[in-house]
Model the fold of this input.
Amino acid sequence: MTAKPRAITLAWQEAWKQFREVFPYLLAGVLIGSLIYGFVPTEWIAKHAGGDNVFAIPLSAIVGIPLYIRAEAVIPLASALVAKGMGTGAVMALIIGSAGASLTEVILLKSMFRTPMISKRKGSAVLTVI
Done:
């Protein structure tokens, strides 16, 4: 086998491996988004996280912190929340809160940094969201 076909084969194998790793999370995001879309009342989301509620963004940021929303799950989840009446700012706060200040990230960072550094990082992430 020449170098070019071998490189293509290796690229496809790597792409397939990464797809298999990501697919369960993508599927979970679609499932969660579908459940929200199907079972959470539109009025409830619009009332608590709609554009008219001044506390929607800080509340969404705080709710997002304990969550760990993978990048593959963000689009279906955000789509379902916006379709149900959640403000786009609140959706962004939820996403940034879950990505920038999640408990999973704290656990990972704890192995590399001391507590004051992690606290400053988390505090700046929350302030950025709000």
